[in-house]
Amino acid sequence: MACILHIETSTRVCSVAVSQDGACIYDEADLEGPNHATKCGVFVDEALSFAESHAIPLDAVAVSEGPGSYTGLRIGYSMAKGVCYGRNVPLISLPTLEVLCVPVLLYHEEVEDDALLVPMIDARRMEVYAAVYNRALKVVRPIQADIVDADTYREYLDRGPVYFFGDGAEKTKAVIQHPNAHYIDGINPLGKYMFPLAERKFMREEFADVAYSEPFYLKEFEAKPSRDLLHQLINEK
């Protein structure tokens, strides 16, 4: 088994962990964010110091690739690449929505064998980034941006139990009230949940290109002018 540094910055949560031999041996998270610009570098330094103090050589860096916060993903990806270049280790890129599924599969025995999983990342208003998986993490419907209404996932809900979770799920509770809809609260994508997916990719040597790989934004970033600039432009007219 490998020693892997895990970096997760796709949402408001900033999280870093270290895994070895199929277990998480160090983790740190800030749930009060977004504070990625100030927290991520500190967490990574502390995680690497922990590994070095225990004479554990680093074998790879795993990063959550998105979708999610544009700024958060850029910070996490840049930090991961920097460690890979500095330590000469490979980069592993993991879909954030799959990372979200890990704690549900590990710790929620109430989820039926035939249930579908719908991890959701908040994309503001009634939009979410979501995908549909079965319990084996096979893609039933790929990642896309959904405007959520009562019928958005009806074709899956009519088949059987569907579990919604992630920071985008809370706002859908009042909209999706199908009898097969279930919600799991408190699920965040965290570094300590990345290791099962990262170790599988490490064993298969499914590494990302450190030079050219990019986060998966799903939607292009749209820069918006500040209110002060808007007022200035209006006054000039």
Outline the fold blueprint.
Layout: E1 3-8, E2 14-20, E3 23-30, H1 36-53, E4 60-66, H2 70-87, E5 91-95, H3 96-107, E6 116-122, E7 127-133, E8 139-147, H4 154-157, E9 162-165, E10 181-184, H5 195-203, H6 227-236
Parallel strand pairs: 1-4, 4-5, 6-9, 9-10
Antiparallel strand pairs: 1-2, 2-3, 6-7, 7-8
Helix pairs in contact: 1-2
Short description:
The chain is an alpha/beta fold. The protein has helices spanning 36-53, 70-87, 96-107, 154-157, 195-203, 227-236, and strands at 3-8, 14-20, 23-30, 60-66, 91-95, 116-122, 127-133, 139-147, 162-165, 181-184. 30% of the residues lie in helices and 27% in strands.
Shape: globular
User: In angstroms, what separates the terminal alpha carbons?
Assistant: 65 Å
Instruction: Round the mean pLDDT to the nearest integer and report it.
Output: 93
CATH topology value of the largest domain: Nucleotidyltransferase, domain 5
Largest sheet: 5 strands, mixed
- Estimated structural class: alpha/beta
CATH homologous superfamily (4th level) name of the largest domain: ATPase, nucleotide binding domain
SSE sequence, one letter per element: EEEHEHEHEEEHEEHH
Task: Tell me which CATH architecture of the largest domain applies here.
Answer: 2-Layer Sandwich
Radius of gyration, in Å, reads 19 Å
Number of domains: 2
Provide the spatial order of strands within the biggest beta sheet. Answer: 3-2-1-4-5
Low-confidence stretches: 221-226
Tally of separate helices: 6
Strand content: 25-35%
Count of DSSP E strands?
Answer: 10
Q: Which CATH class of the largest domain applies here?
A: Alpha Beta
Could you estimate the helical fraction of the residues in percent?
Answer: 25-40%
